[in-house]
Amino acid sequence: MSTHTAAAPASALPELVVFDKVSKTFGSGATQRVALENVSFAVHDLPGKGELVTLVGPSGCGKSTVLRIIAGLRPHFPPTSGTVRVFGKPVAAPSADRGLVDQKYSLLPHLTVLDNIAFGLKLRGTGLGARHALAREWIKKVGLDGAETKYPQELSGGMQQRVAIAATLILTPRILLMDEPFGALDPKTRLHMQELLIELWRAQETTVFFVTHSVEEALYLGDRVYRMAANPGHMVEELTMPRPDVPPEQMRQQPWFADAAHELLRRLEDEAPAGAPLTAAR
Ligand SMILES: Nc1ncnc2c1ncn2[C@@H]1O[C@H](COP(=O)(O)OP(=O)(O)OP(=O)(O)O)[C@@H](O)[C@H]1O
Ligand SMILES: [Mg+2]
Q1: Confidence band of 3 (pLDDT split at 50, 70, 90)
Q2: Of 25, 111, 198, 269, which is least packed with CB atoms within 10 Å of its CB?
């Protein structure tokens, strides 16, 4: 796979997340599933900016497994073979420097929006006044004003997902892991959430790993896109994309972007081998 182009050679920059020939097998005998086979990639710490890495591929190709191994969450972690390093060290267990926004909403049903968002700070020992003040700032940032005292079941899917995102970002993780976070949203809310994520992410300089089934979302959000394939789960190619400078609706109307999305979809559908860069037509 190609390496990221940066001012300094990537290998000279500090490691952020490195997979070296990582394989993961679940079960044994007739029920054995090879979730990942020989997956290698490296994301380095770029000075002053985090990267946004998107992962695409068919269901079962191991996208969630990659994220959960980075997070240190069982049963995906530890891998069956190979090495995983985060911040230059082997992963040992989950940690607040790696925040996961799960495929399923992971809110606490008995807590209000405000307390859900402040929950991680409470675990860290932040006092009530300070954590509620910070949680209120995040409620504004994700556009949930007025919903402070509501409970998760009183919210729409889009609102719940904004609470989950705020609850994770408030902890300023260096690495943000997002597993199909916008999958259940209507198209308009989804575009709004994409813009919001880009905005929040620029302000935090967090490195984001973002799993999606939408090629447009992968290309719009990703500085690089990892395309995976299934049976067994493996990495096919790494594609680089320019940073978005316009909202997603406008980006979609640009012919070069539409062509890139069309080509990525074709490669996914055909399970094509690694191909040429997608942005040559730009
Ligand atoms: N806890 C588990 N126990 C056994 N097998 C598992 C477990 N989690 C995942 N697998 C298997 O590992 C493979 C990869 O699963 P994974 O959830 O990582 O795929 P995915 O790319 O995230 O799929 P989707 O797009 O459907 O979310 C699949 O074959 C799945 O059945
Ligand atoms: Mg998944």
Answers
A1: very low
A2: 269
